[in-house]
Each structure stands twice: as C-alpha cells, then as structure tokens.
Amino acid sequence: MMIDRNTGHLTFSLDKVVTQTTTLADLKGFAFGEMQEERNLLNGWIHFVVKNVEMSGKYLNITFFFHQEALNSVTFIINNSPFDLESGWGTWNEKEEREKVIFFTQWLEEQVGPARNFTWGHIWAAYDPLSGGSSIGIRYK
Q1: How far is CA 138 from CA 26, 61, 94, in A?
Q2: Those residues with Cβ within 8 angstroms of residue 3's Cβ, 6 or more apart along the chain or in another chain
C-alpha cells in the first residue's frame, strides 16, 4: 500500500485505490484480504475490517471507519508475515506493541516524510494504552 502525501489516497493496486469518497460498497467490491467483516454500530458508524491484505511481502490488517456513510478514517497495522487470525490476548506483549510504533513511524517517514498534518487530513503512528495496541491512523477532513 502506498499513501499519496498530496491527496491522502491509499493505493493497493491500479484498480484498488481508496479515497475520501470511497464507499463501503466500493471496498466490498475490492474483495481483498483473507477476511472481511462489517461491524454496524447502529449509531451512524460502520467499521469495515479487512485482515491479511498482502502488499509487497508485507501484511496489513486495516479498519475503515465510516460515519453517516462517509469514510472518516482508517487505521492499520503492518507485519512481515501473515497475522494469526486465531491468536488472542495470550500472545499480547506491551513491550512489543510499543516497539511497533518505532517501525510504524519509520514506515510513515518512507511514505510521506516527516509531515503529519496535510490539507486532506492528519496521519499518525501511536500506541494506545486503552486498547493495548499500536497502529497507523489516517483521519480525513
């Protein structure tokens, strides 16, 4: 996946590009990843989760957040091998999660440089102590 620093578009392939106007139906049509799950929170928010998207030897788990049917934000994690979709909290390690932020920050540097605020939105890499996970996030304006 590539992030266009000028537009915030996420390119997975020539025919799979996510933009701020991408709909949930568009994403479902991509049919990518090992697993897709739609979570309708019944409050205007829908989370669309795609797991084990293979991109150039890396694997991504991605969550697309829609509010009132508009793409609001995206979070994702990257791994060098496929994610074990059966693993649970027994494999969790806070030190490893915090170390992932370093990798994610370096990955962002390669993708978009040092800037984190853009005319199209904001991008970050962080550890969230409430969820116990690290991820890369994009919030569109």
Answers
A1: 19, 14, 23
A2: 9, 10, 111, 112, 123, 138
Q: List alpha helices for 24-121, DSSP H.
A: 24-30, 94-112
Amino acid at 17: V
Dist. CA 88–CA 70, nearest whole Å: 31
Q: Give residue-wise pLDDT tens across range 46-84.
A: 999 999 999 989 999 999 999 999 999 999 999 999 998
Ramachandran region of residue 30, left (φ > 0), alpha (ψ -120 to 50) or beta? Answer: alpha
Token match 């697309």: residue?
Answer: 64
pTM of the shown model: 0.93
List beta partners, residue 66. 46, 71
Distance CA 25, CA 30 (A): 9
120 phi and psi angles, rounded to 5 deg: -90, -15
| Inter-residue contact 14 to 23 (CB < 8 Å) | no
